Amino acid sequence: MPGGVDDPAAPSGGNVYDRRVCRDLPGVGWQVHEHVVAGGWPRPAAAARAELARVLRESAEGGVVLLDGLVACGVPEVVVPEAGRLRLAVLVHLPLGDETGLAPERAAALDAAERRTLRAVAAVVATSRWAAGRLMDHHGLAPGRVHVAAPGVDIGPLAPGSSSGTGSAPRLLCVASVTPRKGQYELVEALAAVTDLPWSCSFVGGLGQDPGYVDRLRKLIARYGLDDRVHLAGPRSGPALNASYAGADLLVLASHAETYGMAVTEALARGVPVLATAVGGLPEAVGRTPDGSVPGVLVPPDDPAALTGALRRWLSEPGERHRAKVAARRRRTALAGWETTTRSLARALEQLRQQPREAA
Question: pLDDT (tens digit, 9 = 90+) per residue, 65-78?
Protein backbone atom coordinates (compact mmCIF):
# COMPACT_ATOMS: atom_id res chain seq x y z
CA MET A 1 0.00 0.00 0.00
CA PRO A 2 1.90 3.09 -1.15
CA GLY A 3 1.09 6.10 1.00
CA GLY A 4 1.66 9.79 0.32
CA VAL A 5 2.99 11.44 3.48
CA ASP A 6 4.16 15.04 3.66
CA ASP A 7 7.25 16.16 5.58
CA PRO A 8 7.99 13.51 8.23
CA ALA A 9 10.44 15.82 9.98
CA ALA A 10 7.75 18.38 10.85
CA PRO A 11 6.01 17.75 14.18
CA SER A 12 2.48 18.47 12.97
CA GLY A 13 -0.60 16.51 13.98
CA GLY A 14 -1.14 15.35 10.41
CA ASN A 15 2.38 13.97 10.16
CA VAL A 16 2.11 12.27 13.55
CA TYR A 17 -1.08 10.61 12.32
CA ASP A 18 0.44 9.56 8.99
CA ARG A 19 3.56 8.09 10.54
CA ARG A 20 1.62 6.29 13.25
CA VAL A 21 -0.79 4.51 10.89
CA CYS A 22 2.07 3.61 8.53
CA ARG A 23 3.77 2.00 11.51
CA ASP A 24 0.68 0.24 12.87
CA LEU A 25 -1.12 -1.00 9.73
CA PRO A 26 1.22 -4.01 9.31
CA GLY A 27 0.00 -5.21 12.70
CA VAL A 28 -3.52 -5.62 11.30
CA GLY A 29 -2.49 -7.40 8.12
CA TRP A 30 -1.47 -4.65 5.70
CA GLN A 31 1.84 -4.46 3.87
CA VAL A 32 2.85 -0.80 3.74
CA HIS A 33 5.20 0.83 1.24
CA GLU A 34 5.70 4.45 2.24
CA HIS A 35 6.65 7.07 -0.32
CA VAL A 36 7.59 10.58 0.82
CA VAL A 37 7.25 13.16 -1.94
CA ALA A 38 8.99 16.42 -0.99
CA GLY A 39 7.41 19.61 -2.20
CA GLY A 40 5.50 22.76 -1.34
CA TRP A 41 2.13 21.07 -1.04
CA PRO A 42 -0.68 21.71 -1.84
CA ARG A 43 0.83 23.81 -4.66
CA PRO A 44 4.10 22.04 -5.48
CA ALA A 45 6.68 22.77 -8.13
CA ALA A 46 6.89 20.75 -11.31
CA ALA A 47 9.50 18.34 -9.93
CA ALA A 48 7.26 17.34 -7.01
CA ARG A 49 4.28 16.84 -9.32
CA ALA A 50 6.39 14.66 -11.56
CA GLU A 51 7.59 12.59 -8.60
CA LEU A 52 4.04 12.00 -7.36
CA ALA A 53 2.99 11.06 -10.89
CA ARG A 54 5.87 8.58 -11.04
CA VAL A 55 4.92 6.98 -7.71
CA LEU A 56 1.32 6.53 -8.86
CA ARG A 57 2.31 5.33 -12.33
CA GLU A 58 4.62 2.68 -10.89
CA SER A 59 2.01 1.40 -8.41
CA ALA A 60 0.62 -1.99 -9.32
CA GLU A 61 -2.64 -1.92 -11.25
CA GLY A 62 -5.58 -2.40 -8.91
CA GLY A 63 -3.45 -1.67 -5.84
CA VAL A 64 -4.77 0.24 -2.85
CA VAL A 65 -3.07 3.63 -2.57
CA LEU A 66 -3.63 5.90 0.42
CA LEU A 67 -2.67 9.54 -0.20
CA ASP A 68 -2.43 12.36 2.30
CA GLY A 69 -4.96 15.03 1.36
CA LEU A 70 -2.39 17.81 1.50
CA VAL A 71 -0.52 16.00 -1.26
CA ALA A 72 -3.45 14.72 -3.32
CA CYS A 73 -6.13 17.38 -3.19
CA GLY A 74 -4.23 20.24 -4.79
CA VAL A 75 -3.15 18.30 -7.88
CA PRO A 76 -6.19 16.61 -9.46
CA GLU A 77 -4.41 16.71 -12.82
CA VAL A 78 -1.94 14.18 -11.37
CA VAL A 79 -4.29 12.07 -9.25
CA VAL A 80 -7.52 11.85 -11.24
CA PRO A 81 -6.02 10.12 -14.33
CA GLU A 82 -4.96 7.22 -12.08
CA ALA A 83 -8.34 6.84 -10.38
CA GLY A 84 -9.56 4.23 -12.86
CA ARG A 85 -6.42 2.10 -12.67
CA LEU A 86 -5.75 2.22 -8.93
CA ARG A 87 -7.92 1.92 -5.84
CA LEU A 88 -7.27 5.40 -4.46
CA ALA A 89 -8.13 6.65 -0.97
CA VAL A 90 -7.43 10.17 0.28
CA LEU A 91 -6.91 10.96 3.97
CA VAL A 92 -8.13 14.53 4.60
CA HIS A 93 -6.69 16.21 7.69
CA LEU A 94 -8.04 19.67 6.79
CA PRO A 95 -10.02 20.79 3.72
CA LEU A 96 -7.61 22.94 1.73
CA GLY A 97 -9.93 25.92 1.48
CA ASP A 98 -10.43 26.02 5.27
CA GLU A 99 -6.92 27.30 5.94
CA THR A 100 -7.23 30.76 7.50
CA GLY A 101 -5.62 33.72 5.78
CA LEU A 102 -5.86 32.55 2.18
CA ALA A 103 -6.77 35.08 -0.49
CA PRO A 104 -10.36 34.38 -1.65
CA GLU A 105 -9.30 33.43 -5.17
CA ARG A 106 -6.64 31.03 -3.86
CA ALA A 107 -9.07 29.44 -1.42
CA ALA A 108 -11.62 28.99 -4.23
CA ALA A 109 -9.02 27.41 -6.53
CA LEU A 110 -7.85 24.98 -3.84
CA ASP A 111 -11.45 24.14 -2.98
CA ALA A 112 -12.25 23.36 -6.61
CA ALA A 113 -9.13 21.22 -6.99
CA GLU A 114 -9.98 19.30 -3.83
CA ARG A 115 -13.55 18.68 -5.02
CA ARG A 116 -12.30 17.30 -8.33
CA THR A 117 -9.87 14.96 -6.56
CA LEU A 118 -12.27 13.70 -3.90
CA ARG A 119 -15.08 13.07 -6.36
CA ALA A 120 -12.75 10.97 -8.50
CA VAL A 121 -11.17 8.70 -5.89
CA ALA A 122 -12.89 5.61 -4.54
CA ALA A 123 -12.66 6.42 -0.83
CA VAL A 124 -12.18 9.42 1.43
CA VAL A 125 -11.04 9.12 5.05
CA ALA A 126 -11.84 11.93 7.50
CA THR A 127 -10.40 12.39 10.96
CA SER A 128 -13.68 13.15 12.76
CA ARG A 129 -17.41 12.69 12.35
CA TRP A 130 -17.74 16.43 11.93
CA ALA A 131 -15.14 16.46 9.14
CA ALA A 132 -16.83 13.56 7.35
CA GLY A 133 -20.13 15.43 7.33
CA ARG A 134 -18.42 18.60 6.18
CA LEU A 135 -16.77 16.85 3.24
CA MET A 136 -19.96 15.08 2.20
CA ASP A 137 -22.05 18.25 2.34
CA HIS A 138 -19.49 20.59 0.82
CA HIS A 139 -18.23 18.39 -2.00
CA GLY A 140 -21.35 16.31 -2.64
CA LEU A 141 -19.71 12.99 -1.76
CA ALA A 142 -21.73 9.80 -1.34
CA PRO A 143 -21.83 8.74 2.34
CA GLY A 144 -20.72 5.20 1.49
CA ARG A 145 -17.40 6.54 0.16
CA VAL A 146 -16.52 8.60 3.24
CA HIS A 147 -15.05 6.91 6.31
CA VAL A 148 -13.96 8.15 9.74
CA ALA A 149 -10.70 7.21 11.47
CA ALA A 150 -10.25 9.67 14.32
CA PRO A 151 -6.75 10.15 15.75
CA GLY A 152 -5.91 8.04 18.77
CA VAL A 153 -3.74 8.93 21.71
CA ASP A 154 -1.24 7.27 24.02
CA ILE A 155 -2.19 7.68 27.66
CA GLY A 156 0.61 9.48 29.50
CA PRO A 157 1.42 10.03 33.16
CA LEU A 158 -0.73 12.55 35.00
CA ALA A 159 0.68 16.05 34.62
CA PRO A 160 1.75 17.64 37.91
CA GLY A 161 1.43 21.11 36.37
CA SER A 162 2.33 24.09 38.53
CA SER A 163 1.32 22.26 41.72
CA SER A 164 4.87 20.93 42.06
CA GLY A 165 6.16 24.44 42.77
CA THR A 166 5.11 26.41 45.85
CA GLY A 167 3.40 29.64 44.87
CA SER A 168 3.76 28.97 41.14
CA ALA A 169 1.40 30.83 38.81
CA PRO A 170 -0.92 28.67 36.69
CA ARG A 171 0.81 27.50 33.54
CA LEU A 172 -1.13 27.73 30.28
CA LEU A 173 -0.04 25.84 27.18
CA CYS A 174 -0.96 26.29 23.51
CA VAL A 175 0.26 23.49 21.23
CA ALA A 176 -0.26 24.49 17.60
CA SER A 177 1.70 25.74 14.61
CA VAL A 178 1.84 29.53 14.82
CA THR A 179 -0.50 30.44 11.97
CA PRO A 180 -3.64 32.56 11.62
CA ARG A 181 -5.89 29.48 11.71
CA LYS A 182 -4.70 28.59 15.20
CA GLY A 183 -5.65 31.99 16.64
CA GLN A 184 -2.60 32.80 18.75
CA TYR A 185 -3.06 36.52 18.03
CA GLU A 186 -6.55 36.46 19.52
CA LEU A 187 -5.31 34.38 22.44
CA VAL A 188 -2.62 36.94 23.29
CA GLU A 189 -5.21 39.72 23.20
CA ALA A 190 -7.38 37.72 25.63
CA LEU A 191 -4.40 37.08 27.89
CA ALA A 192 -3.60 40.79 27.89
CA ALA A 193 -7.02 41.41 29.41
CA VAL A 194 -6.28 39.20 32.44
CA THR A 195 -2.86 40.48 33.44
CA ASP A 196 -4.22 41.34 36.87
CA LEU A 197 -4.19 37.59 37.57
CA PRO A 198 -1.12 35.34 37.84
CA TRP A 199 -0.34 33.09 34.87
CA SER A 200 2.29 32.21 32.29
CA CYS A 201 1.71 30.82 28.80
CA SER A 202 3.94 28.78 26.49
CA PHE A 203 3.21 28.61 22.76
CA VAL A 204 4.63 25.34 21.41
CA GLY A 205 4.53 24.97 17.65
CA GLY A 206 6.30 25.62 14.36
CA LEU A 207 7.28 29.19 13.59
CA GLY A 208 8.23 28.82 9.93
CA GLN A 209 4.92 28.36 8.13
CA ASP A 210 3.87 32.03 8.24
CA PRO A 211 6.82 34.26 9.29
CA GLY A 212 4.78 37.43 8.81
CA TYR A 213 2.16 36.22 11.28
CA VAL A 214 4.86 35.25 13.77
CA ASP A 215 6.38 38.71 13.48
CA ARG A 216 3.00 40.37 14.12
CA LEU A 217 2.47 38.09 17.10
CA ARG A 218 5.85 39.00 18.59
CA LYS A 219 5.05 42.69 18.20
CA LEU A 220 1.67 42.21 19.88
CA ILE A 221 3.31 40.42 22.82
CA ALA A 222 5.81 43.29 23.18
CA ARG A 223 3.08 45.94 22.84
CA TYR A 224 1.22 44.47 25.79
CA GLY A 225 4.42 44.00 27.80
CA LEU A 226 3.95 40.24 28.00
CA ASP A 227 7.48 39.16 27.09
CA ASP A 228 8.05 37.79 30.59
CA ARG A 229 4.77 35.84 30.60
CA VAL A 230 4.30 34.60 27.02
CA HIS A 231 6.99 32.38 25.52
CA LEU A 232 7.16 31.30 21.87
CA ALA A 233 8.91 27.97 22.38
CA GLY A 234 8.95 26.80 18.76
CA PRO A 235 8.27 23.21 17.69
CA ARG A 236 8.75 20.41 20.20
CA SER A 237 8.35 16.67 19.98
CA GLY A 238 9.24 13.60 22.01
CA PRO A 239 10.51 14.22 25.56
CA ALA A 240 10.47 18.01 25.14
CA LEU A 241 6.79 18.01 24.17
CA ASN A 242 6.00 15.58 26.99
CA ALA A 243 7.67 17.95 29.43
CA SER A 244 5.53 20.82 28.13
CA TYR A 245 2.35 18.86 28.82
CA ALA A 246 3.67 17.74 32.22
CA GLY A 247 4.14 21.34 33.31
CA ALA A 248 0.75 22.56 32.08
CA ASP A 249 -2.37 23.30 34.10
CA LEU A 250 -4.56 24.17 31.11
CA LEU A 251 -4.34 23.68 27.33
CA VAL A 252 -5.68 26.70 25.46
CA LEU A 253 -6.63 26.67 21.77
CA ALA A 254 -8.29 29.64 20.04
CA SER A 255 -8.47 27.99 16.61
CA HIS A 256 -10.68 29.32 13.83
CA ALA A 257 -10.89 25.93 12.08
CA GLU A 258 -10.05 22.38 13.17
CA THR A 259 -11.11 19.01 11.87
CA TYR A 260 -10.26 17.32 15.18
CA GLY A 261 -7.48 18.66 17.41
CA MET A 262 -4.87 16.10 18.47
CA ALA A 263 -3.33 18.49 21.00
CA VAL A 264 -6.61 18.31 22.90
CA THR A 265 -6.53 14.56 23.38
CA GLU A 266 -2.79 14.62 24.09
CA ALA A 267 -3.47 17.04 26.94
CA LEU A 268 -6.44 15.08 28.23
CA ALA A 269 -4.35 11.89 28.10
CA ARG A 270 -2.27 13.50 30.85
CA GLY A 271 -5.24 14.84 32.82
CA VAL A 272 -4.77 18.44 31.61
CA PRO A 273 -8.11 20.23 31.07
CA VAL A 274 -8.82 22.22 27.92
CA LEU A 275 -10.14 25.66 27.06
CA ALA A 276 -10.91 25.73 23.34
CA THR A 277 -13.11 27.32 20.72
CA ALA A 278 -16.13 25.21 19.82
CA VAL A 279 -15.18 25.01 16.16
CA GLY A 280 -15.18 22.09 13.73
CA GLY A 281 -14.16 18.82 15.32
CA LEU A 282 -12.73 20.33 18.52
CA PRO A 283 -15.86 19.59 20.63
CA GLU A 284 -15.63 15.99 19.40
CA ALA A 285 -12.02 15.76 20.56
CA VAL A 286 -12.76 17.38 23.92
CA GLY A 287 -15.69 15.03 24.44
CA ARG A 288 -17.44 14.41 27.73
CA THR A 289 -16.92 12.26 30.78
CA PRO A 290 -19.28 9.32 31.47
CA ASP A 291 -21.39 11.63 33.69
CA GLY A 292 -21.68 14.24 30.90
CA SER A 293 -19.16 16.76 32.19
CA VAL A 294 -16.96 18.72 29.78
CA PRO A 295 -13.26 18.35 30.72
CA GLY A 296 -12.66 22.05 30.47
CA VAL A 297 -14.45 24.89 28.69
CA LEU A 298 -15.67 25.38 25.11
CA VAL A 299 -16.26 28.96 23.93
CA PRO A 300 -17.82 30.27 20.71
CA PRO A 301 -15.32 31.00 17.93
CA ASP A 302 -14.57 34.60 16.98
CA ASP A 303 -15.91 35.84 20.33
CA PRO A 304 -13.09 37.67 22.15
CA ALA A 305 -15.27 38.48 25.16
CA ALA A 306 -16.19 34.82 25.65
CA LEU A 307 -12.54 33.74 25.43
CA THR A 308 -11.43 36.43 27.87
CA GLY A 309 -14.27 35.63 30.25
CA ALA A 310 -13.50 31.92 30.24
CA LEU A 311 -9.83 32.60 30.96
CA ARG A 312 -10.73 34.94 33.83
CA ARG A 313 -13.11 32.43 35.39
CA TRP A 314 -10.61 29.59 35.19
CA LEU A 315 -7.75 31.70 36.56
CA SER A 316 -9.73 33.34 39.36
CA GLU A 317 -11.99 30.53 40.58
CA PRO A 318 -10.26 27.59 42.31
CA GLY A 319 -13.50 25.62 42.18
CA GLU A 320 -13.63 25.89 38.39
CA ARG A 321 -10.03 24.73 38.09
CA HIS A 322 -10.73 21.76 40.35
CA ARG A 323 -13.89 20.80 38.41
CA ALA A 324 -12.08 20.93 35.09
CA LYS A 325 -9.14 18.92 36.41
CA VAL A 326 -11.39 16.19 37.81
CA ALA A 327 -13.35 15.99 34.55
CA ALA A 328 -10.12 15.84 32.51
CA ARG A 329 -8.88 12.90 34.56
CA ARG A 330 -12.19 11.10 34.05
CA ARG A 331 -12.07 11.79 30.32
CA ARG A 332 -8.49 10.48 30.25
CA THR A 333 -9.59 6.93 31.03
CA ALA A 334 -12.14 6.89 28.18
CA LEU A 335 -9.90 8.12 25.34
CA ALA A 336 -9.47 5.83 22.33
CA GLY A 337 -5.98 4.60 21.51
CA TRP A 338 -4.21 4.43 18.16
CA GLU A 339 -5.25 0.81 17.74
CA THR A 340 -8.82 2.09 17.27
CA THR A 341 -7.61 4.50 14.58
CA THR A 342 -5.67 1.81 12.79
CA ARG A 343 -8.54 -0.66 12.78
CA SER A 344 -10.98 2.00 11.53
CA LEU A 345 -8.61 2.89 8.70
CA ALA A 346 -7.96 -0.78 7.92
CA ARG A 347 -11.71 -1.43 7.60
CA ALA A 348 -12.02 1.42 5.12
CA LEU A 349 -9.07 0.15 3.09
CA GLU A 350 -10.35 -3.44 3.16
CA GLN A 351 -13.72 -2.28 1.86
CA LEU A 352 -11.87 -0.49 -0.91
CA ARG A 353 -9.78 -3.57 -1.70
CA GLN A 354 -12.90 -5.74 -1.95
CA GLN A 355 -14.71 -3.44 -4.36
CA PRO A 356 -15.09 -4.76 -7.92
CA ARG A 357 -12.68 -3.00 -10.25
CA GLU A 358 -15.44 -1.26 -12.15
CA ALA A 359 -16.68 0.30 -8.86
CA ALA A 360 -13.18 1.34 -7.83
Answer: 999 999 999 999 99
Architecture of domain 161-332: 3-Layer(aba) Sandwich (3.40)
Q: Given this model, what pLDDT does residue 98 score?
A: 86
- Alpha-carbon distance 13 to 20, whole Å? 10
Q: Summarize the confidence of residues 221-240 as an average pLDDT.
A: 96
Query: Span 2-152+337-354: which CATH code?
Result: 3.40.50.2000
Position 165 pLDDT exceeds 70:
no
CA atoms of 63 and 352, how far apart (whole Å): 10
β-strands 2-5, 33-36 pairing: parallel
* Residue 308 pLDDT > 50: yes
